[in-house]
Amino acid sequence: MEMLSVDVLGICGSPRKGNSEFLLQQALEAARSVDPDHVQCTLYSVRGKKLAPCVSCFRCGELEGECVIKDDFQQLRELWVAADAIIYSVPVYHMGIPGQLKCFIDRLGNSLFGRYRHLFPAGVESLPKQLKVVASIAQGVHLCSGQEHTITDLINHALVMQCVPVAGDLWESYIGPAGWTGKDIARDALARQFERGEGDAAILVKAARDVGRRVVEMARILKAGGRQLREHLQDDPSYAPFLERIGR
């Protein structure tokens, strides 16, 4: 049986190199371990990148999805479009996702509305079925400081983009891996705590690794199903980008 390849894009939404990137590396390492010959993982960090906010000019609708603001958005958008699975790893900022990542998500939605508008009849505003697998990891300095709220925001983003959210495994992960650093603000807090065998850090790392594996498994299930049902799905333009991706 043909072993399906999977392209996993890990997006670190932290403006610094630290705990969120550590957890993302754990998830990507586990994803790659499922099948090193057929799983390709890419880590992209917003650290040092320029991602301006959407100005709601709606020019992307006229420019086939191209954004009039030229910065690092375009590169990350193309990586996002090409991936079979996305793993977000973010710190909690004010009970939610950091501004840099929020800027990207806002522009991504509008840009793809413009890119794919030709698939639908005139006057129909819709997004195609991307059917990417999306997982979300969140960590904060304090306990119960917005981790689940932040993950919920990213789950909503996945649903809006017509993707499939994956949580990982119970009991360590209900809606996604979430944890805290025990009030330690150091960039390497989780790595040090994990090395010392501290319980909360160990649980969080396990959850991150579990979700990395599940992302690859679900992506393969979706790709296999899409190929099996291609003849039926190709009659619906909503599936065109998905079928094009799995065809590659």
Characterization of the model:
There is one protein chain. With 248 residues, this protein is α/β, with parallel strands linked by helices. It has a single domain, classed as 3-Layer(aba) Sandwich (Rossmann fold). 42% of the residues lie in helices and 14% in strands.
CATH architecture name: 3-Layer(aba) Sandwich
Radius of gyration: 18 Å
Strand content: 5-15%
Number of helices: 8
CATH superfamily annotation: Flavodoxin domain
The description of the largest β-sheet is: 6 strands, parallel
H-E string: EHEHEHEHEEHHHH
What is the CATH topology descriptor? Answer: Rossmann fold
Amount of helix: 40-55%
Q: How many domains is the backbone divided into?
A: 1
Write the layout of secondary structure elements.
Blueprint lengths: L5 E7 L6 H15 L5 E7 L27 H10 L2 E7 L7 H17 L17 E8 L6 H14 L3 E2 L12 E3 L8 H7 L3 H30 L1 H4 L6 H8 L1
Parallel strand pairs: 1-2, 1-3, 3-4, 4-5, 4-6
